[in-house]
Design brief:
30% of the residues lie in helices and 22% in strands. By secondary structure, the chain is of the alpha/beta class.
């Protein structure tokens, strides 16, 4: 696995902080990519998050701040923002950060806070997306990278990828196929952000100059 140089970037490059809670699968995909930015830090709310080891292996600074040490979400978010701001990031990237953020936190990073979600939003916001997709009988499922706004999983969409739902799919099998697509589109979205090719405008809509997004369509099930 090629190890990119994520340190000692030129000052002109954008700087990002990545928040995680778990194994760091999408974090790994970001660090493996040659992104035009400095990864200033990886911050987790769980000391045993596997992603911290991934970050350390890439020479990225890590911090842990447990939500259990704070009386409520507001107190935790205030402390978290204080840590993030020490790194002065241009963007804050949620890569499997399993916390619902307060409105004040989201407003503090308005237009600079990005999340990846394992469904084709606006369908299936929240958790257990693959189980719910199978229960509803959808034929196409996927993942979304979007700007974060106060309404959970409903911010402006930057990029999506879709996979067909197969007849004998289990939540685990479907999740694995979706995850492959997450690893493709998440680095792409962050690259566009850092190159200034996509942003959230004052009206809360996407302003982009990346219309070369894949033109191929996905139809499922395909005709016999």
């Amino acid at each position: 696995m090629k190890k990119p140089d994520v340190k000692n970037k030129p000052d002109a490059m954008k700087k990002i902080v990545i928040l995680i809670s778990g194994r760091g699968s999408n974090l790994g995909a970001l660090l493996e990519s040659t992104l035009p930015c400095e990864v200033a830090a990886v911050i987790s709310n769980k000391a045993d998050a596997g992603g911290l080891e991934i970050a350390t292996a890439y020479g990225v600074a890590t911090r842990v701040i447990s939500h259990k040490d704070y009386a409520d979400r507001a107190a935790f978010d205030t402390a978290l923002a204080a840590i993030i701001d020490t790194f002065q990031p241009d963007f804050v990237v949620l890569a499997g950060f399993m916390r619902i953020l307060t409105d004040d936190f989201v407003h503090h990073y308005a237009g600079r806070l990005v999340n990846i979600h394992p469904s084709l939003l606006p369908s299936f916001p929240g958790v257990n997306t693959h189980e719910r997709a199978l229960e509803e009988g959808v034929k196409i499922h996927g993942c979304t990278v979007h700007f974060v706004t106060p309404k959970l999983d409903h911010g402006p969409i930057i990029i999506q990828a879709a996979v067909p739902v197969l007849r004998h799919d289990t939540p685990q099998a479907l999740a694995a196929r979706v995850l492959q697509q997450e690893h493709r589109i998440f680095p792409q979205a962050i690259r566009w952000l850092c190159e200034g090719r996509v942003r959230m405008d004052a009206s809360g809509r996407i302003a982009a100059s990346c219309d070369e997004l894949a033109s191929a369509s996905l139809i499922s099930p395909q005709s016999a």
